Amino acid sequence: MAVVLGKQSALRVWDGVAASRNRGARVNQSVSCGRTLVYGQSVPAGRSGSFKRNEPGSCAVPFNRYANDASGAPAACAASPDQRIRVMPNTPAVSQGASVVGRSAPFAFQSSRDFRHALERDTKAAVKLLMSGATPAFDPSIRDRFFSDGSPIHATVAHARLRRAGGGIETSVRKGPFHPRSFMRIEDGLYVSTPEMAFCEMASVLSLERLIALGFELCGTYRRASTFGLARYDATPLTSPGALASFIEKSPQFKGVKKARRALPYILAGSASPRESELAMLLCLPYSLGGYGLPHPTMNAEMPLPKNVAATGRSSLRCDLYWPVARLDVEYDSAEFHSAERLLANDSMRRIALESMDVTSVNLTAEHLRRASLFDEAAQGIARILGKRVRLPGDLRLKQERLWRELGIVSSDMGLLPAMGTSDSSEPKEGVSLLLG
Fold first, then answer.
1. What is the pLDDT of residues 324-379, one digit of tens each?
2. 407: burial class by Cβ within 10 Å (0-12, 13-18, 19+)?
3. 3-class SS at 196?
4. Coil vs helix vs strand at 434
5. Distance between CA atoms of residues 109 and 47, nearest Å
6. pTM over 0.70
7. Where are the domains positioned within the chain?
8. What are the two backbone dihedrals, phi and then psi, of residue 362, each rounded to the nearest 5 degrees?
9. What's 46's DSSP letter?
10. What are the Cα distances from residue 282, in Å, to 78, 321, 380, 404?
């Protein structure tokens, strides 16, 4: 029997939320992506294929990290450099390679060898037993590992004859063929879903706003914290907007493909933190989605410093959101999201360096995201610097409320903001004072 976990299971592993029963629950995209391991398939890396019918002993399970070797280098488990998996390095293996606390199933492995061995002796055997209706004879059980609330595992099978009920499994039918980049090969008979495939699958269960946020993360250099684990920064992007677009173009069979296509134009590469992604969305999404419709910035643009400034020990600095034409840098000040390499963000030397290059710098803080009125003032000030003529529709407040809610941002005064009409924000930027927090 060939089985691969479907979108509902992916949602639960990523969020710990059963979407069918908790549609109003906030989704926390806790991604390392690639949540589906496929066993016993005849789908080599780089080739498309469909599930074989009546194939014995073939099943799939979700996992929650990527594998590195002990030195932290990516494990070469795939056919090409862009088809690799990773797990947080230098983390001791727990419970024979799989530790489960809460509603997600985070895995931590010291090396790629430990990762493969743990899968072979633990997960694979457990899922086979569970799919056969038996209870895994080890602790923790596969069901406890993935869903501590007792929710069933949602799986997808290749044919209706393979469907079964009970035993903690709910199945649905889905046939191939799949895009050549749907799976990454770990070893013979063991595959993992790619970030591009996971994005398409999640398109059918996430709202458009959350799907865009997920795209930012997949194309960014950060990983959100899972239920059990730490957030990661300065990571390698899992994919790119171009790779997502190419995959979606050649994958018309996905249920959420229309929503995925709609999300693509708003996904930017290079975000270094969730807050940077949220700022870009709040500022640049169109009015129809609750944004201010500003032009797209370059995320984390590297700015070479002049020699007189570089003498301080730095040859360049990065701008969170940078508009090169207007020479505008918008920074989110938070040590939580910026690594030690970024600690000059609040230093006066940074502002002096930018001023020496004729770059205007605007700093936003967590307070701007706690008070929508303060953020509104900042956004309209940024629009003036960009020379953007902002025409704010009267129903923008309602759409803003939805966007902030979908992103999980709680504002103390969103409901107190006045209704909007037409605003002309095209005044010249000379003399504009933007001391924004």
1. 999 999 999 875 555 444 555 456 677 778 888 899 999 998 899 989 889 999 99
2. buried
3. helix
4. coil
5. 29
6. no
7. 3-194, 274-416
8. -120, 125
9. T
10. 38, 12, 12, 8
